[in-house]
UniProtKB/TrEMBL annotation:
It is found in: Membrane. Residues 1-24, 435-458 are annotated as: Disordered. GO terms for molecular function: transmembrane transporter activity. It comes from Methylobacterium terricola. One of its GO terms (cellular component) is membrane. This is MFS transporter. The chain crosses the membrane at residues 30-51, 71-90, 102-122, 128-146, 167-187, 193-214, 258-277, 297-317, 329-349, 355-377. It is a multi-pass membrane protein. Belongs to the major facilitator superfamily. Keywords: Membrane, Transmembrane, Transmembrane helix, Transport. SUPFAM superfamilies: MFS general substrate transporter. InterPro entries: AmpG_permease/AT-1, MFS, MFS_trans_sf.
Length: 458
């Protein structure tokens, strides 16, 4: 038997029953796996609507590559500013009765759903600009939720299980984006924008509610706005504390390895956007593809790479380490875009469009499974870990925004074959810069962190 606080003993059967009935929390492998997968599923559904189905829908309605690229850049802007906006908020979050990070997660998801409800006010003749502005508000809230989620991952997942969590979250995201792209492309084409906006709100609400069910610790409150004790007081004043925080953050990026990883994050997403945005628009406007069919194909390819492929890559990352896997997949991306460029140069772009889309989407989807553990391991130490991780993520989002913005002007002066071959060269340079990659997990976790996780399970 064990004793309760105050010395009252619980009978063995009662203790076991209480343990079985405790709420799911991040201390349970199944609880954290389910929560993180569903939160990324949520992100994927919105991305499938906003970045694929909606972009293809407006491209079919006559929007130019520049207009579609501007929409993608506007929606992605809060994700670029994420470290400045939300990293310090999560890193310095006060203890809460419902969990310091979970409080912000639940609040952000509530605001995100309220933003999606705003799409219903735009009507059937909504312009792409108006839709972009409402989705910008959603991205502000969703990026806060993502910051809290990533900090919860970094603080609860053992290093030896990061590959599996990366694969699960990637699978959640791509399943959501695939389902979102296919479902909302059909709804947009059949019933129009208001019906698609209503369906988006209905589909995303259940996974958002899961954040209420899984606690950071078993003893956390189900829902509470109260702090868990008095608010922490700054030791040297607000300005001095902010300056010290900034110095710690800058120090984290002074090493060659950190700077290289930061550049890789920017280059990967930038190169992908430079090719994918104009190629998708050209398939609809030049080669006569139907927008819904293109969205469904993109969804199917994303689903293939993010489920079966991600599971295999996740296991490989845990076995070999993220460095080796990252370099191998960068080389695979270079080969994929090289083949795509040669096919387009040979005049086979229209007839081999599905194959080219597969090369330019499935292989990069696998790359992210190796990239995320590398970034997490590089961000785990120190009091600015959430902000440090979000700087890496912001570099990826900045690359995506920059690539989307430059895709239109570049496509007007350079053919798609040259762009594809240029992206292949970029991935080759990234593979060479990556070298042996980030250190293995065991060498990047502090001694105190390892001691705190001794005896734990993935």
């Amino acid at each position: 038997m064990s004793a309760m606080p105050g010395g009252t003993a619980l009978p063995g059967g009662t203790e076991d029953h209480a343990m079985r009935r405790r709420p799911p929390s991040l201390q349970d492998p199944a609880g954290r796996l389910g929560l993180f997968t569903l939160l990324y599923l949520y992100q994927g559904v919105v991305a499938g609507f906003a970045l694929t189905a909606l972009a293809n829908h407006f491209a079919a309605a006559g929007a130019s590559t520049a207009e579609v690229g501007r929409h993608l850049a506007v929606v992605g802007l809060p994700w670029v500013l994420q470290p400045l906006l939300w990293g310090p908020v999560i890193d310095r979050a006060a203890p809460r009765r419902m969990g310091a990070r979970r409080f912000w997660l639940v609040l952000a998801l509530a605001c995100a759903q309220a933003s999606l409800a705003g799409l219903l006010l735009l009507g059937p003749a909504a312009s792409l600009t108006a839709v972009s502005m409402v989705l910008l508000l959603h991205s502000l809230s969703a990026s806060l939720a993502d910051t809290a989620t990533d900090r919860m991952i970094a603080g609860s997942v053992p290093a030896e299980a990061l590959g599996r969590i990366s694969a699960a979250t990637r699978a959640g995201f791509v399943i959501g984006s695939a389902a979102g792209a296919a479902l909302f492309a059909w709804i947009l084409g059949t019933w129009g924008f208001p019906a698609a906006a209503a369906a988006l709100l209905g589909v995303t609400t259940p996974p958002a509610l899961v954040a209420l069910l899984v606690r950071e610790a078993p003893g956390d409150r189900f829902l509470s706005l109260r702090r868990d004790g008095p608010a922490p007081l700054p030791e040297r004043g607000g300005a001095a504390e902010t300056a010290a925080f900034a110095r710690r953050l800058l120090a984290a990026f002074r090493s060659r390895e950190a700077a290289t990883l930061l550049a890789l994050c920017f280059a990967v997403d930038g190169g992908l956007a430079l090719f994918q945005v104009p190629f998708a628009v050209a398939l609809v406007q030049v080669h006569g593809w139907e927008a819904g069919a293109l969205s469904r194909l993109q969804a199917m390819l994303a689903l293939l790479g993010g489920t079966l492929g991600a599971a295999g890559i996740g296991a490989y990352v845990d076995r070999a380490g993220p460095g080796r896997a990252l370099r191998a997949l960068l080389l695979a991306c270079a080969a994929a875009f090289g083949v795509a460029g040669l096919l387009i140069a040979a005049g086979l772009g229209a007839t081999t469009g599905p194959f080219i889309l597969g090369l330019s989407s499935v292989v990069p989807a696998l790359l992210y499974v190796a990239l995320l553990p590398a970034v997490l391991l590089a961000s785990r130490a120190g009091r600015a870990s959430a902000t440090q991780f979000q700087v890496y993520m912001a570099a990826m989002n900045l690359g995506d925004v920059a690539g989307s913005g430059l895709a239109g002007p570049l496509a007007s002066v350079v053919g798609p074959a040259v762009v594809a071959l240029g992206v292949a060269g970029l991935f080759l340079a990234c593979a060479r810069a990556a070298g042996s990659g980030p250190p293995r997990p065991s060498s990047t976790i502090s001694a105190s962190d390892r001691a705190g996780r001794a005896g734990g399970t993935p």
